[in-house]
Amino acid sequence: MSLAVASSSEAPRARRGAVGWALGLIVPATLALAYEAAFRAGAVQGRLLPPPSVVLATLWSLARSGELATHALATLARVGLGFVFGAGAGVLVGALTGASATARKLLDPTLQALRAVPSLAWVPLFILWFGIFESSKIALIAVGVFFPVYLGVMGAIAGVDRKIVEVGRVFRLGRAELARRILLPAILPDAVIALRSGLGLGFMFVVAAEIMGASEGLGYLLVDGQQLGKADQIAAAIIAFAVLGKLCDAALVIATRPLLRWRDSHARAEEA
Amino acid sequence: MLRLDGLSKTYPNATQALRGVTLEMKEGEIVAFVGGSGCGKTTMLRLVAGLEAASAGSVEIDGEIIREPHPWVGVIFQEPRLLPWLTVAQNIGFGLSALPRAERDARVEEALLRVGLAGYGGRWPRELSGGQAQRVAIVRALVARPKVLLLDEPFSALDAFTRASLHDHLLGLWQARRPTLVLVTHDVEEAVTLADRVIVMQPRPGRVFADLTLDLPRPRDTLAHDFSDAKRRILKALDGSLQAEAQAAATPDTVGAWW
Question: How many domains does chain B divide into?
Answer without folding.
Answer: 1
